[in-house]
Amino acid sequence: MGKDVIIACDFASAEETFKFLDKFEGKKPFVKIGMELYYAEGPSIVREIKKRGHKIFLDLKLHDIPNTVKKAMAVLSRLDVDMTNLHAAGTRRMMEAAIEGLTKPDGTRPILIAVTQLTSTDQETMENDLLIKEPIAEVVMHYAECAKNAGLDGVVCSPLEAGKVHERCGSGFVTVTPGVRFADGDKGDQKRVMTPEEAKKIGSDYIVVGRPITAAIDPVAAYERCCREFIG
Ligand code: C5P
Question: What is the pLDDT at residue 1?
Fold first, then answer.
């Protein structure tokens, strides 16, 4: 898997998104489209960004009964995205069904990764709300192994977990890590952060970077700095 910087395009409309992407002129960064933008604009936003030549991570975090996820993934597969995801909590059967739905007639499919426990969930909320009593780090690793056994390609995890995920699931198991900040930058609402350089050292395969690029005075320079520090 190639190392890359994925820009989280957390914009509310196509207009704002294109205004941002136009700044990159000839460059075609890998972009993440999340729920806000997708639900606002529908599948046409994916087609339009794809037409402009960008790779796309469609971050919709599917979680439903296996049959529904299989059929939804078949629809997403036709959008020809490069990466998409689901919740590992949907169980191994749901993940296997997702792969079936996502796989095209020619046998190819986008990279499929799992969300383990959201970083907004901590030990206390996991125990109280979900009634899961194991240590959260162990739960994250268990979900990662479950995703691997179901045939998925990797997980979304904090950069701090990426090394451990590779230890448990192998170096070929992809880690996609948000929560990246420049050493001299603002953390915003992210609590556990790493610089692109640290994420590189710990072995993250992809970093997902939003505001350090989207809210920068010069987003192109911020993106280039990120690539320099992460890819080298
Ligand atoms: O702006 P920022 O760099 O914090 O954006 C990070 C992106 O990664 C956002 O789109 C956010 O929803 C996503 N994300 C995250 N933490 C997770 C999973 C996804 O920050 N655990």
Answer: 60
